[in-house]
Amino acid sequence: MSKILVVAEQSGGQLKKSTLSAITFARQLGERGVAGGFDIVAIGASTAAIVDGLQGYGAATIYTVDNAALENYLAQPYKAAIVAAAQKSGADFVVGPAGTFGKDVLPRVAAALSAGMVSDCTGLAGSGEILYRRPMFAGNILATVRVTTPKVVVSVRTSEIDAAEKAGGASKVEAIAADLGTTSARFVKYELTESDRPELTEADVVVSGGRGTKSPEKFWELLTPLADSLNAAIGATRAVVDEWKEVPNDMQVGQTGKVVAPRLYIAVGVSGAIQHLAGMKNSKTIVAINTDADAPIFSVADYGLVGDAAKIVPELTQKIKAARA
Amino acid sequence: MKILVAFKRVVDPDARVKLKADKSAVDTSSVEYKPNPFCENALEEGLRIAEKEGDSEVVIVTIGSDDVTATIRSGLALGAARAIRVDVEDQDLDSDLAARILAAVFKKEKPDIFLFGKQAVDGDNNQVGQLVAEYLGLGQACFASKVELADGEAVVTREVDGGLETIAVKLPAVITADLRLNKPRYAKLPDIMKAKKKPIDELDLDELGIADKKLKVEVVGLEEPPKRKAGQKVASVDELVSKLKSEARVI
Asked: Same structural domain for residues A160 and A47?
């Protein structure tokens, strides 16, 4: 019986690293006086590998909900599994990462538990009473919010909350036979973007392209070698994923896409629209390359280079390779 | 087929928002309002479904005081037949109360599809469609980039981390629109004129049977985050690489 339940995110039966930010958040709640530690729930057709990945982080109990019907994510049965685990755990707090999985399922969990939900939480605030910080208006406003219900659901912005380190010790594992209720949807298929690159939200370096790369062909031609030279993930602006079908939407960095905060962010031909800045302005070091010296991206860049990306990027790629050799 | 579309106005997403001097709220004294971009995608999809299916009605629903009427008219000008406005001030709402209101409107209207934008770009909560689906016990297909109807189901391609996922959800269902779902149309002048005569029903919480007005999430403080300082312009690739290596130490 803990007061906090962490919802593990998985992909293809493997634990996703985003879960570790939710664990950090659970520990922060513990530091704020929520006693009893935290539990985790792992959900899927077979959760053995997910449970392995979750051992050593200090959860009291790892609850598992294994069911063939949970092989592919669907909102209703996953919600039912999380709610069953929350009841078993006696949790007042249900915490998960704010990727598309958490964004899809956690509001339903909140409604089912009559809980208030804090979306995209970036940290705790207040002294005594627990308050929550979250960005609004594309990150241009930071709100501090209070949840007035006994139960609280939080989706955690993983770019703002570090991944938990292992703390040692084994967690008890307990299977739950959850009633998954009615499901009004069925899974048809995945078309996942094949890539050997690090995942955008987890990458140490992100190379990102805007319309200033001129065409989808040029976008890939310029960014691929640069990203290779830095073992970087590739991102794109909303305008690019909207207009160029060759650039998939899951590469979108921004307010309504992915929020990233890598060690190094290189923006190529990106003007710096408000909604794009919302997704990357907390990167540690930002480099901007753009022909327009007045582009807003330069107002957040640590290093700006004015000029034509088509000329600069190949030279930069060569020189980064040389510098790293 | 009846299609209900949640249609919300937001502060112009391309404008930089500021707080009032006392930081109590966003300064709306000189802002322009626009329909939430994702709500425009939702309405466009509703209109396309109605055109394809024939014999259909598209109804928009919004929550707000009298001053949201201009937003409603813009939606009517695009082709919705009529609108419902639930009279509650923005400051008296959270995602949960908005969802309970919209679930009550669903029960009154009994549509086959309830379309939403995936998030409103003011609060950035991304909760309302999902909450409504849970309150109504309906299936949901969120972050939709493609919707096709067949045999009482909506086959929906969803934009998820890592790529695309397709699911089929039984109607009635909640669908929330993502960016690539469609390109919203522009209103034509005669339609803007006609929209002025289309009916807008006004409802309040009592008429919807909503007695519990308590917010589950309250805003207790707002601030503008520290501005990131602009750095330096460098003159050449050599200078950039040298600074990245020895100053920022990131390569």
From this structure: yes
